[in-house]
Specification:
Length: about 250
């Protein structure tokens, strides 16, 4: 489904600040697979996402999504197929627009229909249903501006927006890291239920090793731009947080 071959990204090439952010990444993700990614600060996790979404151009290598080679495809053209949620709850939504306007824009992704034609009644009913599943008391706040909501509420809505039209690939970049522990856990459970319900191919970056092992079916570790661990199946089931910390703890110093 996603096939990354020999991906390399170097920043500030041939200067004193030269930095190999991705060295030689090879990664195949199957349709419907839910992959978690850990790795210390600066190990290349966000750069990997930036190359997949087209924010950055890799120096070498290929990225194939489905049957399409998207390596050089413009960022806005990929946005139709790829949903991304960032750590910062302010990034994903239009701040001064209402909850229903934001959801309508997300629903219109990849279609000609925009806000101009108004929001349809049956869409509103669907928004209400989806929002009530979040269990964050949002189903009766459709006309509230996003900026008036809490970080957790915004992040849950961002997640809904990224998945309301099923993306071919969902990228989550530490999307619960800025939330308080109880809200983070709620948003994490919500993530798993949406991803499992809709069988969305997902890559989730997290600094929480427990979440990385608990959610999804496969765990990768990045270190200095290289994939140094690819855990799945029985090996993964048997692996504990403590073992990963002992084995790779020094990466977190
Ligand atoms: N736009 C950029 N310009 C220069 N260096 C960058 C840029 N983005 C990231 N880097 C560097 O590339 C490395 C990987 O960064 P990043 O992918 O953000 O790591 P992570 O998300 O794992 O914390 C880091 O050393 C970082 O400083
Ligand atoms: Mg990052």
């Amino acid at each position: 489904m996603l096939d990354i071959r020999s991906l390399r990204k170097v920043y500030s090439k041939k200067s004193v600040d030269e930095k190999i952010a991705l060295d030689n990444i090879n990664l195949q993700v199957r349709k419907g697979e839910f992959v978690t990614v850990i790795g210390s600060n600066g190990s290349g996790k966000s750069t990997l996402f930036n190359c997949i979404t087209g924010v950055e151009q890799p120096d070498e290598g290929q990225i194939v999504l489905g049957t399409a080679d998207i390596t050089k495809l413009a960022e806005h053209k990929r946005a139709k197929y790829i949903g991304r949620v960032f750590q910062d709850p302010l990034r994903g939504t239009a701040f001064n627009m209402t909850v229903e306007e934001n959801l309508s824009l997300a629903l219109a992704r990849g279609q000609i229909r925009g806000l101009g034609q108004g929001i349809r009644k049956r869409d509103i009913t669907m928004f209400r249903e989806r929002l009530s599943l979040l269990d964050l008391d949002l189903e009766n706040r459709l006309k509230v501006k996003m900026r008036l909501l809490s970080g957790g509420q915004r992040q849950a809505i961002t997640l809904l927006m990224a998945t309301i039209v099923k993306p071919e690939l969902l990228l989550l970049d530490e999307h619960t890291a800025a939330l308080d522990p109880s809200t983070a856990s709620k948003v994490m459970k919500l993530t798993a239920s949406i991803v499992n319900r809709d069988q969305i191919s997902t890559i989730m970056i997290t600094h929480n090793i427990k979440d990385a092992l608990e959610y999804g079916t496969r765990t990768l570790m990045l270190s200095s731009g290289n994939l140094v661990l690819d855990l799945k199946g029985e090996d993964r089931k048997r692996t504990t947080v403590e073992q990963l910390l002992v084995k790779f703890g020094y990466h977190y110093c």
